[in-house]
Amino acid sequence: MTSEWWRTAAIYQIYPRSFADANGDGMGDLAGITSRLGSLEALGIDAIWLSPFYTSPQKDAGYDVADYCDVDPRFGTLADFDAMLEEAHARGIRVIIDLVPNHSSDQHPWFQEALASPPGSAARGRYLFREGRGEHGELPPNNWESVFGGPAWTRVIEADGTPGQWYLHLFDSSQPDFDWTNEEVREEFRRILRFWLDRGADGFRVDVAHGLVKADGLPDWTPPQGSGSMGGAGGVTVGEDGAGVALEPAISEENGDGAPYWAQEGVHEIYRDWRRVLDEYPGDRVLAAEAWVDPLPKVAKWVRSDEMHQSFNFAYLETPWNAASLRTVIDDSLDAFGSVGAPSTWVLSNHDVVRHATRLAVTADNPQGHGLGPRSKGIPEYADGLRRARAATALMLALPGSAYIYQGEELGLPEVIDLPDDARQDPTWFRTNGERYGRDGCRVPIPWEATAPSYGFGPTDASWLPQPAQWAELARDRQQGVPGSTLSLYQDALRLRREHDLGSGTLEWLDGFDADTVAFRNGDVTVVANTGSAPVALPGGTVLLASGELDGSLPADTTVWLRA
Ligand code: GLC
């Protein structure tokens, strides 16, 4: 394994609930992951990132942690984790785990102790308890809203049975925010980092890495219109004809960047501290930030040389399928991350966004976090969405830097639109009374074998979210070794990416191509993506990879890699 592997790595996100279920209870588990690692080795990825598998009441699918140093029985045991890690390492796959430092679960012993302790106690001081406003403290301490909808404060009942203080939760009421000015909290997270580093974890994806520190005095704040629900990135605006128009970030220097709970300067000292902890360990351990912050030069602050190694590039994820917008965001990304000596990252899908096989072709406004469901407008035909998604992936995997792949995108899975209301589990759905569908549609357990129960997700038919009947056709065994399948496209792209060192290459824009194309050279590979609706001329050279059939030209929504 080379040093600084993370600069060029292809990192595959596993959502443990939905990847593979060894015990047949309908929820994925660590033993399931271990049993399927061979498929990921064959796919050709360098590392996996696992969403949380810690002890948790699962009010937010595990992003509500009750014990940071144990495995939830739904997912297995610490021994299962060790076995999974060993198997991954034996296959040359690094393992990044999720760290959730902004908030715990309300079932965490610290929060339970805080509830049982009086106002002003040390136990309450680990979280953000405040007196309410109004004559009897009946109003929340400020006007902040939860990312999932509704107020960001919940009032507790004190030991004497009367309504008392309020606690802050930027997300669900079951996810109380820690007070990061408290040294005890800081020390506890150093301990948690060391616990997993000692076990051999290769790094951490840091949840809500822009949220830990809040402005002094917790001042009122009203977000600008159109803010995305993940607290930073707005929805992608899509033109009436389905072609994307410019990205509209909800939070930017101009339109009111300055939420007193996002991107406060104080977060950076925390990450410098963590970096010192990681640097005590051998073997290139990494920190990757989930920071929904805009614009890109600001995101780059998370990856200065003494902070984290990577930060997700949500500006790229939110860019519509439009050549001019893509060229701009690629330039901006390489500039911003390059200016601090960090690799750019690239990502199109994860467990919080509409799958890109659907999203890139949606023709109606769909703000981030709202999700899609039966009442949504502008849902594309599957084939149209997939065609565009394959072209977008082929473009992404040719870019220099590190790329993230979300489980199931290599099968061409679309967003599941028609989940029954009573199956939905995202707190967003409940906190907005069904006004926002939330994120369940990208979290449906993935298909492995077309004819097996639950398409091979587990040994039984059980699946915590229902799988669509059409997914038999998309099962891995139907695509493995089939030329032209989406799985083959991903496998070929990842192999070629490695063979041609595209991850460590340099991008050089090519002139003379149609305005609807993104055309560049990376080392000895020429890449042309046609985002328009008409075919364009295919340049000369040997075709290495094509995201769709080439008929002598480069058709709409198709990307090609050529060797000159
Ligand atoms: C991050 C996670 C998301 C979770 C939220 C609260 O954005 O990716 O799934 O709901 O944090 O922890």
TrEMBL record:
A Pfam family hit: Alpha-amylase
InterPro entries named in the record: GH (IPR017853), GH13_cat_dom (IPR006047), O16G_dom_2 (IPR045857)
GO biological process: oligosaccharide catabolic process
TM ranges: none
GO molecular function: alpha-amylase activity
Start and end residues of each Glycosyl hydrolase family 13 catalytic domain: 13-443
Gene3D superfamilies reported in the protein's UniProt record: Glycosidases, Oligo-1,6-glucosidase, Domain 2
Keywords, sorted A to Z: Glycoprotein, Hydrolase
Family statement: Belongs to the glycosyl hydrolase 13 family.
Name under which the protein is recorded: Glycoside hydrolase family 13 protein
